[in-house]
Amino acid sequence: MKLTLMIILFSVVFQATAQEKFALYNDKIPNSINTDTARYNRNIPEIFVYKPSAALDKGMGVLIIPGGGYAHIAMDHEGHDVAKELNKAGFTAFVLKYRLPSPNIMVDKSIGPIQDAQRAMQYIRSGFPLLHKVGVIGFSAGGHLASTLLISSKRGFIANPSQLSLAPDFAGLIYPVISMTDAITHNGSRINLLGENPSPEQIAKFSSEQHVTSDLCPVFFVHAKDDKAVPIENSYVMIKALDKAHVKNKLLTYEEGGHGFGLINKTSSVAWLDSFVDWVNHL
Length: 283
Known about the structure:
Distance between the termini: 41 Å
Keywords: Hydrolase, Signal
Oligomer: single chain
GO molecular function: hydrolase activity
Helix content: 25-40%
Shape: globular
Organism: Sphingobacterium kitahiroshimense
Strand order of the largest sheet: 1-2-4-3-5-6-7-8
Mean pLDDT: 93
Signal peptide: 1-18
Protein name: Alpha/beta hydrolase
């Protein structure tokens, strides 16, 4: 009897943490140059799929976009760790390894990441049709990429012959970079994405708060008030734009915690992911 219980428990745990890795594109990666270089090979986009146990599966998926200032990708504490916790809550989770913007391997480095985010949504919609809702969670610069995904559903950066929806059904933006404007942006993210001297048009194009419309999905924000790297004003300006467009949103603030804390803000007993899951369940 004890052996049977152990086998069952092991099976449930294994199902909740097992993951598979897939290439994001089946054919040529769009917007690519210098495909025979080491930099290109390091930046081949991939997606990691985490499936919950059948007993927990609620038929919803979440695309997870880790941060890293568009200079690296925090795949573990803002990616795989989050996926495992979402599995426990019954979500199918997808961790995105996106291309880091580089003029050495892209025709236009500013659109490489959003191409990969849109392709990830396309991959999920086509490959997992039983998911009745697909959301996104993005951290820091990954939050900028997630917010760009929200406001770009009608601007296709990839081929989409089946006209699948590339728009998430809900979103979590965790200490996100939102704006590229001088006053509140994270300068490193802006330089890496747009270059040292972006034009006013480029700044406006990639400032998500300037492109909010009433058809955006509900958005959940998490931000610490003492975040020095990405000021909380990034969340505030997006919330103001969402409120103006009458888009449902919620902000969970921490008094302390700074930036980049991932799943656990050690200064507080409030677990933001629990609040996010509860919020999604009541949408």
